[in-house]
From TrEMBL:
All residue ranges annotated as the N-acetyltransferase domain in the record: 39-190
Protein name: GNAT superfamily N-acetyltransferase
Superkingdom of source: Bacteria
Lineage: Bacteria, Bacillati, Actinomycetota, Actinomycetes, Kitasatosporales
CDD domains for the chain: NAT_SF
Length: 190
């Protein structure tokens, strides 16, 4: 089996004032919380955004596993729409002691390079900072963190840094190389 050397960077913000919002893109771009847990919709977003950059860890999840994850207190999915069409998403997860992780963030390939990503990330980070306002029993946010890796889009790291995230850890590991799955087999060429 062929392996791929993957660098993973972990980044954080430790105060709401760390966020440096991007400009709102022109046109009819809206960000809306997906409030009804929907395994079908969440899997669509995951596979469509990550299919060309080898997001594979959730592809084998059952419907029940998706449902269980989405129904956990403090898990939120915020979706960017461009003229009514899903363009990308950010998934948040409340963790212990006021920590919120941005589990997934990205755009469908057709919407990349249109200034939607910076706006969506800004919006998602702001929602991470005020997440406890929507979830009774969840501690107020004291830290927002995420990780990105060398398999992610070429502008991912720059977007995170421009939004005010700071690097706190770097790891390099060999991973099995997998074919680019696409949102369905054959959707993207590797």
């Amino acid at each position: 089996m062929t392996t791929l050397s993957v660098t993973t960077w972990s980044l954080e913000q430790t105060a709401p004032t760390d966020l440096r919002p991007a400009a709102v893109p022109e046109g009819d771009v809206r960000v809306v919380r997906s409030e009804v847990p929907s395994p079908e919709f969440s899997r669509f977003l995951y596979a469509s955004v990550g299919g060309d950059i080898r997001w594979t860890d959730r592809l084998g999840w059952t419907y029940a596993r998706w449902q269980e994850h989405l129904e956990r207190p403090g898990v939120e999915t915020w979706v960017a729409y461009d003229r009514g069409t899903p363009a990308g998403y950010v998934e948040l997860e409340a963790q212990d002691e006021g920590v919120v992780e941005i589990l997934y963030f990205g755009l469908l390939p057709a919407f990349r390079g249109r200034r939607i990503g910076g706006h969506l990330l800004s919006y998602g980070v702001a929602r991470a900072w005020d997440l406890a306002d929507r979830w009774p029993g969840v501690k107020p946010t004291t830290r927002v963190w995420l990780h990105t890796c060398s398999k992610d889009g070429e502008h991912a790291m720059d977007n995170y840094l421009r939004r005010g995230f700071r690097l706190f850890d770097t790891k390099v590991e060999d991973e099995p190389e997998v074919a680019t799955p696409g949102p369905w087999p054959g959707a993207y060429s590797a």
